[in-house]
């Protein structure tokens, strides 16, 4: 499609997508100073990698740990961090996810074939009109000597929403 | 305001069904719906909260029975109708009204779109502009922003 409509569609088909967020996560895994910055001012830290603008103006990074897991939703509609994840998948915008994840997050994880240890605390974050969340998953065991590019390839979109748990690499 | 969109905690919708290898759009019209909505946001005739409110104010049965991008298009229709940017007869007839001809210059739109995407969000449009009568002849001077996204659609 020619013209501005085609350019808009093309932007989200090629330029903007979860590969951007995967780079943010991998950078946080290998660079402690960036991880610290991301924890304190995610908007600025993410902007330093070149990801800014619409639907990412006020970013918050949620750090997963063995004791705490994070999941993100927009119960009212579809708010989602476009600059780092692109456009949301249908399930994220669907009534089942929006309704269920705040009441039964472990049930939602089961819908994705995932199980968290019972001892891990789960926090669900409901996006506001402006704030956008990016989940920073735990770095998988077995990747200690991996490069940033190798690590980025491991990071799934769903792990950055909180519905996927990255598995150890053997 | 409570409404059918306020779904957090409801229990009647069943399991989440992720789709393997999901395409970005499930039909080409979905991409057009996204692009049209984003482009029309640059008209400055509403802000993002007003567009959300319009979607959420669709009749409940319509909201619950529509796909995501159907809701976007129905919302965009309501926004344009309520601001006299289009008439119901024009929407029904299909082709763009002749009074729109020449208002969009696609060669200027691409760079401006990227600037707008990376800069201000629609909800940062000054309130004074939001209260002004909708117009297709908004100019860069009136918008007062370097990116001037309104140029893409309105001149």
Question: What's the structural blueprint in terms of helices and strands?
Answer:
The complex is a heterodimer of chains A (170) and B (155).
Chain A: H1 3-15, H2 18-30, H3 32-40, H4 42-47, E1 58-63, E2 68-73, H5 82-85, H6 90-93, H7 95-100, H8 105-111, E3 121-126, E4 131-136, H9 148-154
Helix pairs in contact in A: 2-3, 2-9
Chain B: H1 28-41, H2 48-56, H3 60-64, H4 68-82, H5 88-93, H6 106-118, H7 127-131, H8 140-143, H9 150-154
Helix pairs in contact in B: 1-4, 2-4
Written description of the protein model:
The complex is a heterodimer of chains A (170) and B (155). Chain A is α/β, with parallel strands linked by helices and 170 residues long. Helices cover 41% and strands 14% of the residues of chain A. In chain B, 49% of the residues lie in helices and 0% in strands. Chain B has nine helices and no strands. The termini of chain B are far apart. The model of chain B is unreliable at 103-109 and 122-155 (pLDDT under 50). The chains are: A alpha/beta (170), B mainly alpha (155). Chains A and B meet through helix 1, helix 6, helix 7 and helix 8 of A and helix 1, helix 2 and helix 6 of B.
Poorly predicted spans of chain A = none
Overall structural class of chain A, as computed from helix and strand content, comes to alpha/beta
Mean pLDDT of chain B: 72
Report how far the terminal alpha carbons of chain B are from each other: 36 Å
Evaluate the radius of gyration of chain B.
17 Å
Radius of gyration of chain A over all CA atoms, rounded: 16 Å
For the report, how would you describe the main beta sheet of chain A? 2 strands, parallel
Label this structure with key terms.
heterodimer; A: 170 residues; alpha/beta; two-stranded parallel sheet; B: 155 residues; mainly alpha; 0% strand
Structure, briefly:
Chain A is built from nine helices and four strands. Chain A has helices at residues 3-15, 18-30, 32-40, 42-47, 82-85, 90-93, 95-100, 105-111, 148-154; strands at 58-63, 68-73, 121-126, 131-136.
């Amino acid at each position: 499609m020619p013209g501005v409509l085609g350019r808009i569609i093309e932007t989200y088909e090629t330029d903007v997508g979860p590969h951007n967020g995967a780079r943010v996560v991998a950078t946080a895994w290998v660079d402690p100073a960036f991880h610290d910055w991301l924890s304190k001012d995610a908007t600025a830290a993410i902007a330093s990698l070149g990801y800014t603008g619409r639907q990412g103006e006020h970013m918050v990074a949620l750090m997963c740990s063995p004791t705490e897991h994070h999941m993100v939703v927009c119960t009212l509609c579809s708010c989602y961090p476009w600059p780092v994840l692109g456009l949301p998948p249908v399930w994220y915008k669907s009534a089942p996810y929006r309704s269920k994840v705040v009441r039964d997050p472990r049930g939602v994880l089961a819908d994705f074939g995932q199980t968290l240890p019972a001892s891990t605390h789960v926090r669900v974050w409901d996006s506001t009109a402006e704030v956008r969340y990016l989940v920073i998953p735990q770095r998988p065991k077995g990747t200690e000597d991996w490069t940033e590019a190798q690590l980025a390839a491991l990071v799934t979109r769903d792990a950055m929403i909180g519905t996927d748990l990255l598995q150890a690499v053997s | 305001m409570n409404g059918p969109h306020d779904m957090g905690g409801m229990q009647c919708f069943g399991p989440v069904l992720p789709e393997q290898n999901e395409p970005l759009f499930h039909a080409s019209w979905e991409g057009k719906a996204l692009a049209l909505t984003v482009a029309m946001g640059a008209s400055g005739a509403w802000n993002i909260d007003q567009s959300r409110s319009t979607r959420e104010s669709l009749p409940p049965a319509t909201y619950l029975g529509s796909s995501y991008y159907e809701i976007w298009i129905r919302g965009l229709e309501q926004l344009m109708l309520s601001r006299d940017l289009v008439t119901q007869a024009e929407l029904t007839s299909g082709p763009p009204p002749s009074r729109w001809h020449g208002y969009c210059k696609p060669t200027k739109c691409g760079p401006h779109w990227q600037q707008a995407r990376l800069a201000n969000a629609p909800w940062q449009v000054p309130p004074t502009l939001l209260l002004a009568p909708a117009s297709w002849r908004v100019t860069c001077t009136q918008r007062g922003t370097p990116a001037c996204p309104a140029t893409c659609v309105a001149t």
